[in-house]
Design brief:
Radius of gyration: 22 Å
Strand content: 15-25%
CATH architecture of the largest domain: 2-Layer Sandwich
Number of helices: 6
Order of helices and strands: EHHEEHEEHHH
Distance between the termini: 27 Å
CATH superfamily of the largest domain: Histidine kinase-like ATPase, C-terminal domain
Strand order of the largest sheet: 1-2-3-5-4
Largest sheet: 5 strands, antiparallel
Structural class: alpha+beta
Helix content: 40-55%
CATH class of the largest domain: Alpha Beta
Number of domains: 2
Shape: elongated
């Protein structure tokens, strides 16, 4: 896909100890990273899945267990792994009563994910879960008419004159942001040149943006 300023989503890992208070911190980290990756629509499901996987370790392996959260792209799926050293305690999908307070963790994971599984290695196990995205490529954007139209506008500014193919991802992202701001400013100039209220247009655009992203 020809993508203006594509978004390389590099894998990352976070080691921590399996304690109840760590779950809230992990949820915050996921919210930040998925927002930066342009995947805000996956935040809630990702938080739920990771919370349940970590809670499963706390319950069945023990508090204080050294655990690693690994997040990456698996094709166009978001992949999250919870790695712990206990290879005998395996998460299982069981049916729990509607009013049960426990035993529903993996059922929730299964319901909110596209697929999940367990990988056993000599010294640890990996419980993984994958969420489907609307991405066309791992480093692309969502299939979104608004984003596609914006891509067309930004291409008219020919950012290649500023950023070469060997430029860093950070530089590409910075130039793309500056180009988008320049495009917005040009549209405001166009509105004023046609006798329209630029400030009112910005307010209306913000309202429409928020409505589109709800």
């Amino acid at each position: 896909m020809d993508c203006t300023a594509c978004m390389p989503r590099k894998p990352w890992k976070l080691p921590f100890l399996a304690e109840p208070e760590e779950v809230a911190a992990l949820r915050r980290v996921l919210r930040i990273h998925l927002g930066l990756w342009g995947l805000p629509e996956l935040i809630e499901a990702a938080q739920l899945c990771v919370s349940e996987l970590v809670s499963n370790v706390i319950t069945h392996v023990g508090r204080g267990t050294p655990v690693t959260l690994a997040v990456s792209m698996s094709g166009t799926h978001l992949r999250m792994e919870v790695q712990d050293p206990e290879v005998r305690a395996l998460p299982t999908l069981v049916e729990a009563a509607d009013d049960a307070e426990t035993g529903r963790g993996m059922a929730l994971v299964s319901a909110h994910s596209d697929r999940w599984g367990v990988q056993l290695l000599p010294d640890h196990k990996v419980t993984w879960v994958e969420l489907a995205t609307a991405l066309v490529t791992p480093d692309g954007h969502n299939r979104n008419v608004h984003v596609s139209r914006a891509e067309g506008v930004l291409r008219s500014y020919d950012m290649r004159q500023v950023v070469g193919p060997a430029a860093s991802n950070r530089l590409n992202a910075t130039v793309a942001e500056e180009t988008a701001i320049e495009a917005i400013a040009d549209l405001l100039h166009w509105l004023r040149a046609h006798g329209r209220d630029a400030d009112e247009a910005v307010d209306r655009a913000q309202v429409q943006f928020e409505a589109d992203t709800e």
